[in-house]
């Protein structure tokens, strides 16, 4: 009885303090049915249900990582629209961070990126099942930031425009050879061969992606122009006129970036161009930010994923013997892409839950919606960087960026 009274008193004090400081549109419901408003709202947008007494300590330090962990482990339930849930989670975490005395310390993580470890990480994320990804991606199954030229495109159109935007940026010409590092399910190489007349090699470490990409190339009648390989970029040989890497270098590791770009340089023809499209950290020191949920991401979504600041990317690129010729911020485009993905995921929620189980359903639900909010609020960013071998004559470069936009993206 004494313990219950002490707990109730502590909880009442915490709720009153949080309500005064944060005024959240949240109804807190305990396992015993007791309810408490966390803000001054007649109709709270979100109901946070604590399913067991052991989950109460997370309320004292409700970071994004802790909230995500509790949700995935089914210690709490969150009811409301997905956008409201994510917005509240960020406000909840920010209020707790302020109460604890300021922002969380930035931590720079470093992992051992051996070939075996990288392959295991890639297969953990991408080999859920092709059917799973097909439920919420566009028909081309492009799993990277789309390009919304006008802002009102549907997802399939924006993904096709993203591929054309990239291939136009690197000035891909008929008959040229193209290497796509981390080729996914083959959409870029298929487009490069069909529309631009290129001869392509796509590499991936995902068995599921390799199998389906190979089949899609065969169905498109392009087996004589496209080769899909189950291969690490460090084991790839040859010389290519153009190289693309889309949504792959996040798995390389910050310490390995100079060697990664150096390998790209070795594979690139002397007059060739390459393009790296990847997620970055807004932290100048290339560490975690207080509200990026990086611990949750590493534990459940992208094992060993590391995000460098764009400054580190450009530094590593130069150390690898390449020179950046064009840099474009794509943060707003990824926010819109993730909104489409999250909406598709919600629409297919019952099917996905039955397919992958409750835990994995919850992981991906939080990941997709949370990342959309992170890109919207500059907790994560993303850039496309076009480059060529350093030390070449400037005469090989166009005078302006007009060439990127003069060609139709339709």
From TrEMBL:
InterPro entries: CFA/CMAS (IPR050723), CMAS (IPR003333), DUF7884 (IPR057206), SAM-dependent_MTases_sf (IPR029063). Its EC number is 2.1.1.79. It holds the Pfam family CMAS. Residues 18-93 form the DUF7884 domain. The active site is at residue 371. SUPFAM superfamilies: S-adenosyl-L-methionine-dependent methyltransferases. Keywords: Lipid metabolism, Methyltransferase, S-adenosyl-L-methionine, Transferase. It is an enzyme of class 2 (transferase). GO terms for biological process: lipid biosynthetic process; methylation. The keyword Methyltransferase applies. One of its GO terms (molecular function) is cyclopropane-fatty-acyl-phospholipid synthase activity. PANTHER family: CYCLOPROPANE-FATTY-ACYL-PHOSPHOLIPID SYNTHASE. Belongs to the CFA/CMAS family. This is Cyclopropane-fatty-acyl-phospholipid synthase. It comes from Cupriavidus basilensis.
């Amino acid at each position: 009885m004494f313990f219950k009274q002490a707990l109730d008193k502590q909880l009442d004090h915490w709720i009153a303090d949080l309500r005064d400081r944060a005024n959240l549109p949240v109804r807190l419901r305990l396992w015993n049915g007791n309810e408490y408003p966390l803000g001054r709202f007649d109709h709270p947008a979100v109901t946070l249900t604590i399913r067991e007494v052991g989950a109460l300590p997370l309320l004292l330090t409700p970071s994004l990582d802790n909230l995500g962990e509790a949700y995935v482990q089914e210690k709490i339930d969150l009811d409301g629209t997905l956008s409201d849930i994510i917005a509240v989670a960020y406000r909840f975490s920010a209020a707790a961070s302020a109460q604890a005395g300021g922002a969380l310390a930035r931590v720079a993580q470093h992992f051992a990126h051996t070939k075996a470890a990288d392959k295991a990480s890639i297969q953990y994320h991408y080999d859920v099942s092709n059917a799973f990804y097909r439920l919420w991606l566009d028909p081309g199954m492009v799993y990277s930031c789309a390009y919304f030229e006008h802002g009102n495109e549907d997802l399939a159109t924006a993904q096709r425009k993203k591929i054309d935007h990239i291939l136009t940026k690197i000035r891909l010409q008929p008959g040229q050879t193209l290497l796509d590092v981390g080729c996914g399910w083959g959409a870029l190489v298929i487009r490069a061969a069909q529309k631009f007349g290129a001869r392509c090699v796509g590499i991936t470490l995902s068995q599921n992606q390799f199998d389906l990409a190979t089949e899609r190339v065969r169905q498109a009648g392009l087996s004589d122009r496209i080769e899909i390989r189950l291969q690490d970029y460090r084991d790839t040989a040859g010389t290519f006129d153009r190289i693309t890497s889309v949504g792959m270098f996040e798995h390389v590791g910050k310490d390995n970036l100079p060697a990664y770009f150096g390998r790209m340089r070795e594979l690139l023809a002397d007059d060739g161009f390459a393009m790296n499209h990847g997620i970055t950290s807004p932290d100048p020191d290339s560490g975690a930010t207080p509200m990026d949920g990086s611990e949750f991401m590493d534990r459940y979504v992208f094992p060993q994923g590391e995000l460098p600041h764009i400054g580190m990317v450009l530094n590593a690129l130069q150390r690898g013997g390449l020179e950046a010729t064009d840099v474009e911020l794509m943060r707003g485009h990824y926010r819109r892409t993730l909104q489409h993905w999250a909406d598709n995921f919600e629409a297919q929620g019952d099917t996905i839950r039955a397919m992958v189980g409750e835990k994995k359903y919850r992981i991906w639900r939080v990941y997709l919606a949370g990342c959309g909010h992170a890109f919207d609020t500059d907790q994560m960013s993303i850039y496309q960087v076009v480059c060529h071998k350093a030390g070449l004559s400037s005469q090989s470069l166009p005078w302006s960026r007009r060439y990127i936009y003069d060609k139709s993206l339709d």
